[in-house]
Amino acid sequence: MTQKHTPPDGLVIVDKPSGFTSHDVVAKMRGIARTRRVGHAGTLDPMATGVLVLGIERATKLLGHLALTEKEYLGTIRIGQDTVTDDAEGEITSSTDASGITREAIDAGVAELTGAIMQVPSKVSAIKIDGVRSYKRAREGEEFDIPARPVTVSSFTVYDVRPAVAGNGTPVLDLVVSVVCSSGTYIRALARDLGAGLGVGGHLTVLRRTRVGPYKLDAARTLDQLQQELTVLPIAEAAAAAFPRWDVDARRARLLTNGVRLEMPEEYAGTGPVAAFDPEGTFLALVEEHRGKAKSLSVFG
User: Fold this and answer.
1) For the segment 10-32, what is each residue's pLDDT rounded down to a tens digit?
2) Which residue numbers are catalytic?
3) How far apart are CA 88 and CA 139, in angstroms?
4) For the whole prediction, is pTM greater than 0.85?
C-alpha cells in the first residue's frame, strides 16, 4: 500500500530568479511540494530577483499578514532615461545627457523621496483601477491616472555613482542604491521620481530583494536547490520570527482555540498581529488586540 504524501505546513523562502513572475514561482512550488495550497506574500516583478516568501498548506493563512511587513532592496537606478514601465523591461521613451548631474543634486533628490511620502505607482503595475489591473489598461493604450498612495521609505542610500553610456550613445549615470520601505512601495517609481526631480528621467535597471520582514536572503533557496531538498520553515517558527509572541497557559489555550475572546496584556495594544502559543510551544492562533481582547485573525492550534 502506497503511503499518502502529506505536504508540510510552513514557509519557503525562495531566491526568485529573474524572468519569473511570482505566479510562475508558485506554480513551480506546487509541483515541488506536491500540493495546490501554495501562495506568496507580496509579488516581485519578473525582472527582480531575491526574497519571495511562499506559504504551503496552513501557512498560506499567514501570508496576508506577512505581506504587510517591511522590505529591503538592492538595486541600480539609471539616471538619464525614462521607460514606459519605469524599469529596463520597457521601451525607452526619453534620453537626456545626465553627465552634468552632481552628487549633491542626487543626494538632495534622494532626501526628497525618503520618509513618509506620497507615491504614484507605475502604470504598468498590478494595481487595480476600478477592478481592472493597471498594466492591462496601459497595454490597451488607455489614458488613466493612478492616485498617489502613502508609503514609507525608511532608508534610501546611494552607494556608488557610475558614469555610463546608454546604447543610443547618451551619457547616463548608474546609481547603486539600497532601499528599506513599507509594503506597497514601488522601487521603480522611486527611480522614475528621482530622475524626474533631476530633470533627466530615470528608471530601474537591476533589483534584488534582500529581506521581507525577518526573512533574509541568507535563508533563501533557489528553485533548483528546493527541487533537490524542500527546505520548509515550520509554521510555529515562522510565526515566532515574524510577529510578537504571546505565551498562554493550558486553560487559556483551550479557551482561545474555542473562539473565546481572552483579555490581552496591555503590551500588545496596537502592535498588529500577535502569535499565541500554548505551554508546549504549539502555535495556536494569530490574534490582534481589539478593545483589550484577543480578536482571532486565524486559528492554527
Assistant:
1) 999 999 999 999 999 999 999 99
2) 45
3) 17
4) yes
